[in-house]
Design goal:
about 375 residues; alpha/beta; TIM Barrel; 11 helices; globular; disordered N terminus
Length: about 375
């Protein structure tokens, strides 16, 4: 398998899922204090580092930033870190970096949109207060259109969080607030099958209580983190595969759902930097799962995402992981037998549609290398 520098993807690429934080932000991240100091995530992962990771990809149009799970809660006294994260992103977009944040004035064109944290299960009054504060922050630098959606991670939350009436009401409030996407982060392998079952019941409830004209899009992260610890031989008959598959098909039956092809390196066996797992082996390992995903969602509702820098966890090191993921996705699209239109959807088109990005892919396609 040729390196990314030698084998370019012949389509514009939008990375629909990355995280960014400067070294000074580590103290504000909910998960950072639990990591060893030499962990690949226990250091700055800002735009300087992302540019270095993606430097050999000439077709990258930009990315969607997804909130990094900063320390936050449901009370208005617990929102400062989440708002500070949005302020950091507005500085990237306006090309006004603060020294030490890891970005330059030329990086603004890469940032296509943000998925901000929101306290979804808070009371309606509290959520509306938060949204007002968020909008004020964006308006103060004329960056209201930067906001493309919201996320409140449920993968580490208590049982039945998604079924709480306040959570359902919160999603309905978000739908009415402007950006009409919600990133759904659940974890089948570590969180349990019940998380997917709750997502399904939550979507049924939304469908029955919202008008038929509902426009809230649910963008599912990381294939719901399937149990890729199983070997390809174990997978077809294992309960984890059959339960996950049934739930994925049901989630896909809701037409407002999209799915990110992202986040699998941290679920797969680790890859040493000096010997990355061959792409063909990665495709074979994940094929049963990805066959289900493509049959259920089709390329029109699947979008490419790298989950950088988390792809460095399990991936073959900071220098290679992003490019190795891109090669893997390219090989998956070939294995799935997609035509040019389908590949274009996964690489960029679905993200543009799902998040409502202001990107003219028709113009971008003019420069596409044609095979």
């Amino acid at each position: 398998m040729m390196a990314l520098a030698d084998q370019q993807i012949d389509f514009p690429i939008i990375d629909s899922h990355i995280h960014l934080y400067a070294a000074s932000h580590l103290k504000d991240l909910a998960w950072a204090s639990t990591l060893p100091k030499d962990h690949v995530l226990s250091c700055q992962n800002s735009l300087d580092e992302y540019r270095a990771a993606t430097k050999s990809c000439r077709n990258l149009l930009g990315f969607v930033f997804v909130e990094t799970d900063r320390i936050a809660g449901l009370q208005d006294s617990e929102w400062d870190h989440a708002i500070e994260e949005v302020e950091f992103l507005t500085r990237i977009k306006s090309g006004t970096p603060i020294e030490g944040e890891g970005h330059t004035s030329t990086d603004k064109n890469l940032l296509l949109g943000i998925v901000a944290w929101a306290p979804v299960p808070a009371s309606q009054a509290s959520l509306e207060t938060y949204l007002t504060r968020l909008n004020t922050t964006l308006s103060s630098c004329n960056q209201q259109t930067l906001l493309k959606g919201y996320r409140y991670l449920v993968q580490d939350k208590p049982l039945s969080t998604q079924l709480n009436p306040a959570f359902i009401q919160g999603l309905q409030t978000l739908e009415q607030s402007g950006p009409q996407t919600f990133d759904l982060g659940v974890d089948f392998r570590q969180g349990g099958h019940h998380q997917l079952l709750e997502s399904i019941e939550m979507l049924h409830t939304l469908s029955s209580t919202s008008p038929s004209t509902s426009t809230l899009k649910i963008i599912i992260n990381h294939l719901c983190k399937p149990n890729l610890h199983l070997t390809p031989q174990e997978t077809p008959s294992h309960p984890d595969f059959t339960n996950w598959s049934t739930s994925i098909r049901t989630l896909a039956s809701f037409k407002q759902t999209y799915l990110k092809l992202s986040g699998l390196f941290s679920e797969l066996p680790s890859q040493p930097p000096d010997s990355p797992t061959p792409i063909a082996d990665l495709v074979a390992h994940t094929k049963p799962w990805l066959d289900v995903v493509f049959a259920a969602f089709g390329p029109r509702r699947i979008m490419f995402g790298s989950d950088w820098p988390v792809c460095n966890v399990g991936g073959p090191g900071r220098e290679k992981a992003w490019g190795h993921w891109v090669e893997f996705v390219g090989a998956v699209l070939e294995d799935q037998g997609l035509d040019s239109e389908g590949k274009g959807r996964v690489w960029a088109g679905t993200a543009v549609e799902g998040y409502g990005l202001d990107v003219d892919l028709g113009t971008a396609l003019v420069g596409r290398v044609r095979g």
